[in-house]
User: Fold these one by one.
Assistant:
Number 1:
Amino acid sequence: MSIRVHALAKNLGLSSKDLLAKLKKLNVKVKGHMSSLDDETAQIIREELKSKPKSKPKAKPKPKVDKPASVKKPDEKKPDEKELKELQIKIPLTVKELAVKMSLKPTDLIKTLMKMKIMATINQSLDEETVKKVGEEFGFNLGRLPTLEEEFLERHKEKDTSGKLVARAPVVTFMGHVDHGKTSLLDLIRKTKVAAREAGGITQHIGASEVEVDGKRITFLDTPGHEAFTAMRARGANATDIVVLVVAANDGVMPQTIEAIDHARAADVPIVVAINKCDLPNINIARVKAQLSQHDLVAEDMGGKTITVNVSAKTGQGIDDLLEMILLEGEMLELKANPNRPARGIVVESKLSRGMGPTATILIQNGSLKVGDVLICGDYYARVKSMLNDHREQIKEAHPSNALEISGLTGVPEAGDAFYVVEDEKKAREFSLQRLEEKRLKGAVAITHISLEDLYSQVKEGKIKELNIIVKADVQGSLQALIESLQKLSSKEIAIKVIHSGVGNVNVSDIVLAAASNAVVIGFHVGTESRAQAAAEKEKVDIRLYNIIYEVTADIKSALEGMLEPHIKEVFLGRAQVRQIFKVSKIGNVAGCMVLAGKMVLHAPCRVVRSNEEIFRGKISSLKKFKENVKEMNAGSECGIAVANFKTIRVADIIECFEIEKVARRL
Ligand code: GDP
């Protein structure tokens, strides 16, 4: 439903011209009095115009910087339980703009910001969090109006289901344990099903491929494993319709098989199982199926619903069946799209290539793309100069579920970024700049995922109803015990859900899954792999390591009650790798190191990691640049490091230093 501007003006007892002026002030973009406004916008405008006279009894001929009576001074008592005044604004906005919106003097706003320890100048942009906080100080509940881009995208997406929908090809990803044959299967399918169209020779991959079986198409994404799959999902992109879980018949279900199952499930993507290497002697397929059923993948011949196909990438056995089953699963999903609309989809891969500039492999999820179209792609945009299909042939037009490589981008987008076609380059540039500006602002406020500290407040605010947990333990027995005691902690307010569990150290895959599913990682008698540590720091995933089951449950209980004691947190500073060992009189062994990330800091606490395991914890007692003592060394530089009381340092050891931070409990 919508209403035209002139009708709304009549409703409100205003002239169209007056309403248009007011709309402009409210940042609602309309062309003229015949433009229509959607219901929600109209409602906001009604409320906005209604609330004005209340707060400003005497019209508003005065300059807007005057403070109306109803606006609270920040020094006054807290707005107690008094209702906050609703106000919709576009974000980011400058201090000046915000002052105008709240009818304040900019200096008053700056003073209050200073009290909140935010130093801002009048023309500085503010991010959403700051705006909300400072708004409350003045008695406002500030809501964010959708950005022009968001509004545009909303309209774009509405077209997804309008128009004539046609069936589209399923998009498939192979996942499974390393060496179980994902690459071999994909290569074989590509070779046997695609070769007919090729002029011969090896095709260079674009990160995705399409095959045709009995006139029906399937698009395969070459994601190397479930980490990439979930990393894309963490960015909000679910490209895959069906996961083919590859399990080698001779090996059976392995740790990464379970990871893959959990990743696919967390993404709500159906699984077709390919039992591979069926050409090998002495294999026991029934055993593999029994193992799978322990993970709720019960094969059809065992009375379950999971499609399983016995295949061999070596002999080609079962490949046709597998493709047929993928198509069947695809049909059941009733995948549809509207080719007669501008394209949108996601980035599968991207790179900066010599001569071509930034290029990206994109998957069209809806609509059609033509050469010459302008599209926004992540933070960048392009007028599409050339499009290559998966055989690197130039094409002029592409349709839903097609994967293709495009060039002409203004920068390199990230895998998982969304793209969509806009009407012209001007709009693309505008959105792109706006995004880059927002990113710059957000840079200061990093993304965070759930942590036990802020669990309580999030539950109270109704933000979460489920606590997702990933559990890693040293042995299967304690894993089971831990999961059971965790599940008992579920309450009416919050359900505890173990989305993945496994034996072994916390690894990157755990962090990626935690980031995508907003989960906390709990390790029991295990450590964290260094790559995982780095990923957790980047993604702000809460990892908690324990040695006593009771402590795990006690911590979660306290977190649920908002009574968690402050905990000591290690904040990563830097990582260096030992390249050489020197003997230095007085100091002893000094490790000649390369700083790999961050910075190494003299006297900082540190740990020594060997083969992904922490073997020592201490302090950096000496830091040298050649012979000179220094306080810090940055990434990329070579330095000498001595770790106090640690004599057995070896080449290839990793030294990580960190800061200790006490995290207060937040209520
Ligand atoms: P990925 O790590 O899952 O991608 O596994 P690869 O495709 O790289 O395969 C790992 C190894 O298993 C390679 O040496 C392959 O040649 C071998 N392999 C893959 N599929 C089969 C199969 O069906 N039968 C046999 N005998 N070997 C296979």
Note: Residues 176, 178-184, 276-277, 279-280, 312-314 surround guanosine-5'-diphosphate (CB under 6 Å).
Number 2:
Amino acid sequence: MSFASLGLIDPLLRNVQDLNYQTPTPVQAKAIPAVLGGKDVMAAAQTGTGKTAGFALPLLQRLVQHGPAVSSNRARVLVLVPTRELAEQVLQSFVTYGKGLDLRFLVAYGGVSINPQMMKLRKGVDVLVATPGRLLDLNRQNAVQFDQVQTLVLDEADRMLDLGFARELDAVFAALPARRQTLLFSATFTDDIRAMAAGILSNPVNISVSPPNVTASKIKQWVVPVDKRNKPDLFMHLVAENKWEHALVFVKTRKGVDYLAAMLDEAGYAVDTIHGDKPQPARLRALERFKTREVQMLVATDVAARGLDIDDLPLVINVDLPIVAQDYVHRIGRTGRAGASGVAVSLVCADEAPQLAAIEALIRQSLPREEEPGFEADHRVPETSATGEIIKKPKKPKKPKVPQAVPGAKQATGKKPRPQGGESKRKPGAQRAVAAGKGTSLSSGNPFSAQKPRSKPAGKTAAGARKPAGKPAGGRGKRQP
Ligand code: AMP
């Protein structure tokens, strides 16, 4: 099938050709004719399926073919997205796919000054890509009115609900003309999404492509069981051992992001971070630098997890598992794009067994576990099954206490010594120093050290039982407040 056979006009076909898109993806093949025909669409499609072109190309065509010209402080197509990063990316897609067309585009999101956005809206725009909160702000200040909106697109609707935008969305729906085209894209179709869809779509064309398990199966995935407090060391060890040089690294907390970024930086990697507390321009800069490979390691919280379009990413490292299983699929969705194969490794501690079980249930497969010699977990990560169960092994009968335990006895129980850091192409000395725990100023406040301690016989703590060589002193085993 060709793009031309879908009924697209020449300027759009040229732009698609310039991008070297040979054939429409499944979501494009279904969405483009439906959108061109003015129909509502409900599509289960996640990032990586080509969904953006699936709605942008036909909407650009409708804008060109169907007047009237937009008036001041109005928009004809409204695209709502959950995050600022996705907003920028979707805008860029409209600009690229709509090259040479006489149309005006604008992106608007919070966290940056509203005035330039208001100025640009004065002339009116054909396409306004916005996050819900900022769109309402602009509307309240009369910078944008909705009476000329022909089409509403909800991109990553599930993520918008996850992020608590339900009320803002309802307010937008109420303010839009009742007669309009509505396109809803969502990776998942929960009851909430279905309820929302029922209220805003009329007679939609249903499209479903690439269920999460299909996307996930293209990627080599495995899990390394580890004690939480040893995650930073294991992470640095894996990076050095495998000579990983370009990876997207996910961490649960902002503190964790900063901690790992500092470790990587000390080890000589070009590193940047994305998290919610970072000013927007800095976040976008980080993403750009990562895409151009000026930055090797991008360490991010969930904020960056969805919708970001990073081509050819070979590796995702989940230092923490996401709380929401679906986010795992979004995270690793960044690898293995367009048929390329990717790698996704997850460092999993005992506390995360429920999340691991939920992920395995979602992707309908058990993730293989590969212990890393020297980092075996003292806190065993319970077995999980692909049906989402945590298989609790029967407890071993307690051994009678030996009154005078020999200090260091556990060391002699066959555990291999922790490997020293691998070589680095870039700054071997520095990297080895960190992998071996030396020369780092990160000795205090390991934000990964808050695992619930299992009760140990007196005088034999987890830290004391096995102390991998060279771990930064202090912070180990400390509980965070
Ligand atoms: P999306 O799912 O919209 O985020 O798109 C994912 C990636 O696929 C983007 O990098 C697009 O440039 C690319 N893409 C979209 N449509 C096609 C196509 N028909 N052929 C090849 N690549 C495409």
Note: The chain has two domains: 4-208, 219-398+428-445.
